Amino acid sequence: MQVPQLFPVHSAPHGTKVAVVGAGAVGSTIAYACQIHGVAHTVALYDTDAAKVRAQVLDLQHGSMFTPTTAIIGSDDVGVCADADVVVITAGAKQRPGQSRMALAEANVAMCQALVPRLLEVAPEAILVPVTNPVDVVTQAVLAVSGLPAHRVVGSGTVLDSSRLRSLISERAGVGVPSVRAYIAGEHGDSAVPLWSGAFVGSVPVSDWKVDGTPTFTQAVRDDIARTVTNAAYEVIAGKGATTYAVGLAAAYILDAVLGDQRLILPVSSLVQDFHGIGGVCMSLPRLVDRSGAGVPEPVTPSPEELARLRSSAAQIRKVCRDLRL
Prior knowledge:
By secondary structure, the chain is of the alpha/beta class. The protein contains eight helices and 17 strands. This is L-lactate dehydrogenase.
């Protein structure tokens, strides 16, 4: 007698494979999010810690009765990533309480420079999705060492930051999160820029939204929301040691957009060629994400203040890249 599936089946594209590099808190949570959402037919975990990766794989496999059909495999051999459609990079030094993401740059860039050629040997057609922080600098390093076209290196960027922003706007507006459209752009870090000029609740600009005739999103409220978004990771890390659930869901969302060819507009980090004079740097801007990876930035027009802050954010990323000779 066949046991009925207890979870609605999501039809992952046939034969698709996601490889996740790093079986720690973030990597395993991304694998879990991919499993429960049926993002790919196969999810592979790669980590140099053989005992850990085996334990994570077993733990995920033991829940397979409750999820869409997904093959979960793992190894301390990079060959487990062979022929992956997408490779997610989460390995590297983790952010400590009070530490900025940029402080991780040197060690994590060096790690990626050693790792990426090995990944491309076994998965030469893969789209690479760096999640390791500082993600914009790491994305630039992966792009440089891989030699891939820019659209095939898609950093997780500010997708999570934008989710935090939308959540806070929805709370103030009293609407569901899906009714909010708003983006964080620039660095995934302290110089991130909320694009308030293009933020909407339903079809209403955020700046025009009122409750009982009173404007909801005053400048003071917007500044408070922006500070909360910027400090969110620090608060989570201080309380539990790492951000895991939200980044896992954000990464799975990006992967689903790629493998499902969904053509979603997402603020991922990829090479900026020329955006209002900003160029030659990887940073987050709203882009079309589909099966080919990241498209060019959408032709949005930030306010003069937002553009000045985006240029400053780009300069900070570029300086770290220059210091690391990227």
